[in-house]
Amino acid sequence: MSSFKPLPLATKISMPFWQALKEQSIQLQQCNSCDGWVFFPRNHCSHCLAHDLTWKPVSGDATLYTYTVARVPTMAEFKDESPQILAVVTLKEGVRMNTTLVGVQEKDIMVGMHLKPVFDQVDVKGNTLLRFTSVDSDLSVLEYQDPLANLARNSQGQVQVPITNLAALNALVTDEFSPWSEPLTVDQGLINGFADLSGDDYWIHTDPEKAAKESPFGTTIAHGSLVQVLQSRLPLTLPYEIVGFNTMVNYGSDRLRFPTPVPAGARIQSRARVKSVASTHKGLQLILEVHIHLVDNDRPSVINELVIFYR
Ligand SMILES: [Zn+2]
User: Fold this and answer.
1) Which domains occur in the chain, in start order?
2) 17 CA → ligand 1 middle, Å
3) Which residue among 4, 36, 132, 252 has its CA within the 20 to 30 Å range from the CA of 96?
4) pTM for this prediction
5) Distance between CA atoms of 7 and 77, rounded to whole angstroms?
6) Percentage of the chain surpassing pLDDT 70?
7) How far away, in angstroms, is 13 Cα from ligand 1 center?
């Protein structure tokens, strides 16, 4: 399974449960006052209300309390798992959990059957969901399958992601930016050209003498919108190529900021990352977060979250 499916959100209270799953262990809270086991995670004992709970490892031995077979996907993202066997299981400690059964034939499922845990690694970060299977099954871990691993690459080494492969498209989403582009010098000539074109000839951009005396930057600075459009002269090295679409539309920007000015004569460079991917009625929406920086400056001069539609 891959991470484009909605995942449970760990809270401060439930974090130990999710953290343990990453380490292929199940931890439950037990009450120090009445010895009762507690699930879902909370601050107080669900038996005696004492605020005195300790996380403890348990085996995950369980029995099937009830189940249903969902033949229509509960959400479109779960189509590849159909039919899903949605189950409630009772752990040996007495608590019940909602889960899914994996690795069992529908005909072999019986209420009361003995179950064991399966640790399902759902993303590259190691996030793990708790499934269950029959005690007779060999299954104990479902390892993360990188949906990009077996895709073809183009002559530039970019992974070619078909527009129809939602799992692979979602695997492009990352916190890591691409390598820096080649730098470009933003000289006064470029700034003057943009002033003529746009009509914005404010002295802070176009009058080096006055700017030397009066500008807080001690020099003229480029228009924010100039630096933004210079992105086209800073070719990005993205690790992917989306293939199999008819049109690609630039739909504008979700967010555009100019946090740091670019003085005349400075060098700029850019990098980008895929911030999100979503399937919408307008087509596949990809948000490419592009940052332009002065060379060797940690703060961006432009933050532009480009909205691109493929269809
Ligand atoms: Zn208690």
Assistant:
1) 15-142 (no CATH), 159-310 (3.10.129.10)
2) 19
3) 4
4) 0.71
5) 11
6) 99
7) 17
